[in-house]
Amino acid sequence: MAILPRLPLLAILLTTLLACANAEDRQSATATIHRFALRSSASVHDDSNVTDAQRYAKWLTQRKPTRRSTAMRRQASPGFVSDPDSAMMRVADTSSGQGVGSLVYSSSNNVWTVSEEGSPTTITLNSEIPGITTRAYQQLMSNADSTYPVLGIGQCNSGAPVDIGSGSSNVLCLLNTEAVGTSPGSVPTQLSNSLSGSTATYVESNIWTVNYSSKTATPTWVNPNGTSVEAHIVVAVTNSNIIFVTGDVAATSAAYGLEFREVTLNFSILES
C-alpha cells in the first residue's frame, strides 16, 4: 500500500521522457529535410555565385577518364623517317588480294612501274611502335634515287590537274621528290622531282598511312582547297606498267578507254 502514491510520479516521468524524445525526432527530421533542400536549390536552380573556374572544375569531374594508352594512340606520328626499317614493296589486286607484281623504280626513265619479274625497289619506313598498329602521315624513302629520295605523289607533268576525287577522271603519278618533302596534311607544294627534274611541280610526300598489322601503305591526297581525298593506286589490266593515282577508278577507266584495277601496296620488312 505504501507504493501506490509513487505511481502518478512515475507516470509523469515517463510522459516527460517520451515528449522530449518526440521533440528531438521532429527537430532532426526538420533539419535533415532543410539541409538537402538547400543543397538541391543551390546546385540546380541558383548558380549565380558559381565562378567560371568552378564550372570548369565541375565539367572536368564529369568527363570520362582517358586511358594513357588511348592518349598515346591519338598522338600524331612524326612523318619523317627517324627509326627506319628497310622493306620490299609488292603490289596486289585490292579486290581479290592476288599478287600483281613488285613495285620497281626504273632509273633509266625515272618512273615507277609494276613488274612481275623485276626485283622490288627497297623502301625505307618508320619502324613499328609496340601497341600502335597504324601510323598516319608517314614518309616513305626510296633507295633508288639519291637526288630525289622521297616516295610521293604529284602531277604527271607540268600543267596537269592537281585535284582528284569522286566523279573525276583526273590522275596523279607516283614519283620521287626532294628530301625536304611536304608537311603532313599540307596542300600540294611545288618541289623538283623525278618526273619534272629541276622544274618544280606540285607534289605531296607525307601522305602514307602505314598499317603494321596488314603490312600495307595507303596514300591520302589533299586537294588544293584543303579537302582530304582517298587516293586509289590503279594499274591498267592489260599493261601493269601504266600506273596512276586517282579519286575515281571507274571515271578514270572510262576517260582513258582502259580498264584499270585498284591495287594495294604490301610491304615486307627485310632482315637487318
From TrEMBL:
Region (Disordered) spans which residues?
63-83
Supply the alphabetized keyword list.
Signal
Q: Where is the signal peptide?
A: 1-23
Protein's name in the database:
Uncharacterized protein
Tell me the classification of the organism that encodes this protein: Eukaryota, Fungi, Dikarya, Basidiomycota, Agaricomycotina
